[in-house]
Amino acid sequence: MTEPLTRSPHVRETHNQDGAVLLDPRRGKLYPLNPVAALIWKQVGEGFTPEQIANNVAIACSISLEVANGDVSEFLQLVVAEHLAFPHTTVKPVLSRPSWWRRLRDRNWLRFKGSSEVV
User: Could you give phi then psi for residue 24, rounded to 5 degrees?
Assistant: First the structure.
């Protein structure tokens, strides 16, 4: 995984001195996070790439980059597998406007178009 992840919009979170807890209300699951996992989760939300996150974790925790890469990779695979986050490439396009909006637009367009032909 080399690209940033996008958090799932339905996931809720709360932070405290012990880390964080994620709630997935759709699946009825809680995910307790230790302080390092909470740091990784925060950086996922800020749009960092896995490489940037691993660098930051290595510095923050005074560990080697190899260990940080492994830990970050494992965590990111978990959140993707649990549908808490997903790669940017799988982001769905914004839904189109509702059908009532299209009907209103079309009706006004026809009215406008019809009035210009009358003149």
Answer: -110, 95
Q: Domain containing 36: what range?
A: 5-93
Distance CA 54, CA 58 (A): 6
In a domain, 84, yes or no: yes
Tokens of 31: 């995910």
CATH of the domain at 11: 1.10.10.1150
What tens digit of pLDDT does each residue of 101-118 get?
566 666 655 555 555 544
Residue 79 placed within a domain: yes
Q: Has residue 100 been placed in a domain?
A: no
Q: Distance (Å, rounded) from C-alpha 60 to C-alpha 68? A: 10
26-67 residue pLDDT tens:
999 999 999 999 999 999 999 999 999 999 999 999 999 999
The structural domain count of the chain equals 1
First to last CA, the chain: 61
Angle at 93 between CA 91 and CA 96, to 5 degrees: 155
